[in-house]
Amino acid sequence: MAMVGLFWIGEDSVYVGAEPEGAASGVRLSEDGVEVLGAGRGRFWTWDEVVRIETRDVPVRSEMRRLASMAFDAALVAVTGYGDLPPAFSVEVATAEETVQVDVHAAVAGGIYLPSEYELSVTLLQRLADGGTDIGDLLAWGRDHAAEGTPQREEREALLRKWAGA
Hints:
34% of the residues lie in helices and 27% in strands. The protein is built from 4 helices and 9 strands. A hairpin with a 4-residue loop joins strand 2 (7-9) and strand 3. Helix 2 (115-129) runs parallel beside helix 4.
């Protein structure tokens, strides 16, 4: 799997945020549609039903502030021995009939996204919801490259620009 912007991309699905484990909540995007995962949450909509996918409370900081936060967190874990789960943010999936909000964990190392990747990811989510972009493009990249791991920042941003048509 590989992280590109807000997306955790594998060979057969794309997650907004980290891939959930166990009963943790999550949002999976596939060729068939959008699925909300987690204990008591199992919901699915086809792409034709989805009118909007938005995020809220995503931890975003400049590169310098992100590095400082990561260094502080690493020092805190080294001193106390306690580590926290990555920060969570909300994903809202809307159809004509309903809106469902679910919390997901950040997939990026350190749990903090860079502003450029965040903005491109938000644009991509809008394009996926309105049919302007096909999730198949992300899945095809995942089949060919996800096993290599997360690409460098410049490549991630280039992929997001390409997929979002930005």
